[in-house]
Amino acid sequence: MAEITLTVVAPRDLMEGEEFEVTVELPKKQPKERGKLAGIPFEELTLEQLKTLLTNKKSSLAKLIKRGVGEPDEDGIVDDSGVARITMLQDEIDKIQARREELGWTPRKRGASAPKQPKELEVCKDLDISNLEALFDI
Questions:
Q1: pLDDT tens digit sequence for 74-105
Q2: Which helix (H) or strand (E) holds 96?
Q3: 98: in domain
Q4: How far apart are CA 60 and CA 69, in angstroms?
Q5: Is residue 55 one of the residues assigned to a domain?
Q6: Beta-sheet pairing, 19-26 with 2-9
Q7: Which domain holds residue 58?
Q8: Is 137 a member of any domain?
Q9: Among 68, 91, 102, 111, which is least packed, fewest CB within 10 Å?
Q10: CA distance 113 to 103
């Protein structure tokens, strides 16, 4: 929370001209939830919504890592806030994956979702033109 310290000169009730300090704590502004998943409790998310949430969190994590957050700068100093953000995102990703498994989702191996080859058509050996003509009254 942010703090502001003010020095006030008393106009009355105290000795005239007497100064005193007041420290006021400003409440931290709560982040506004945005997007399709805003306002939906975590426990009520469907598998598809969890997939979307997981994709978003992984994307945020990848962007932080790509920017080099959590790595030492040229002076060898590591920004702790970046490390905390990476840790928080990784914890959220683990929580989402655990919830997906709880709902019955099972991870597939790469290539397992490849389209299956169509079955070969069975050829009818009894088929000839006379059978078709009889079938359609031609």
A1: 777 777 777 888 899 999 999 999 999 998 88
A2: helix 80-102
A3: yes
A4: 12
A5: yes
A6: antiparallel
A7: 35-102
A8: no
A9: 111
A10: 20
